[in-house]
Amino acid sequence: MRIQHEKAQQSPQKRLQQMVDRLRESDCRITPQRYAVLRVLAESTDHPSAESMYANLIDQYPTMSLATVYKTIHLLKLRGEILELEFSDLGNRYDGKKPYPHPHVICTECGKIVDHEQLDLQAIINRMMAETGFKIVTNRLDFYGICPDCQETENNSE
Ligand SMILES: [Zn+2]
Ligand SMILES: [Zn+2]
């Protein structure tokens, strides 16, 4: 069974503690390296890849390995504590702050991914269920465009 997450924005500290607690509950060992990966996930708003998390951590944690990053992601995935976004061109990106489906806005130039909060998705889902008879259990909604930074770069290079 999936754990229902409160959708109110949590502080990174609270979210970090929640992830640590959930892993401990199921007897996962929280090594300093795993804790560091959880911290990056709890703090990141830019939907990092495993490779970018590893690159961020290796200076501070010389014993960090890419395998540890993947293993930690895998443990979170098993428990529904991380949202994995798969892209054919950007690879897999992760949201540890909000492990439930939510709309994303993606820059086609630099690969930046940001969340969008205001869309009333539940109203749309309710209508879809009423109209199709499906019991909708999950969703994925991506919007593509060019982020403000990349628009500025484009304007400057003209
Ligand atoms: Zn961009
Ligand atoms: Zn997100």
Q: Which key phrases capture this entry?
A:
158 residues; three-stranded mixed beta sheet; Arc Repressor Mutant, subunit A; 43% helix; 13% strand; alpha+beta; binds zinc ion; 2 domains; flat; 5 strands; Dna Ligase, domain 1; 6 helices
Please explain how this structure is put together:
- The protein contains six helices and five strands.
- The chain has 158 residues and is an alpha+beta fold.
- Helix 2 packs across helix 4 and helix 3 crosses helix 4.
- The radius of gyration is 17 Å and the shape is flat.
- It has two domains: 100 residues, Orthogonal Bundle (Arc Repressor Mutant, subunit A), CATH 1.10.10.10; 58 residues, Ferric-uptake regulator, C-terminal dimerisarion domain (Dna Ligase, domain 1, 2-Layer Sandwich), CATH 3.30.1490.190.
- One zinc ion binds next to helix 6.
Relative helix content:
40-55%
Total of DSSP H or I helical runs spanning 4+ residues:
6
Number of domains: 2
Strand % is 5-15%
Strand segment count: 5
At the fourth level of CATH, the homologous superfamily of the largest domain is: Winged helix-like DNA-binding domain superfamily/Winged helix DNA-binding domain
**Poorly predicted parts:** none
* Structural classification: alpha+beta
* Assembly state (oligomeric): single chain
**CATH-level-2 architecture of the largest domain:** Orthogonal Bundle
In the CATH scheme, the class of the largest domain would be Mainly Alpha
Order of helical and strand elements: HHHHEEEEHEH
The side-by-side strand order for the widest beta sheet comes to 4-3-5
The span between the termini is: 53 Å
Radius of gyration: 17 Å
Largest sheet: 3 strands, mixed
Q: Give the overall average pLDDT.
A: 92
Query: What is the third-level CATH name, the topology of the largest domain?
Result: Arc Repressor Mutant, subunit A
List the ligand species. zinc ion
General form: flat
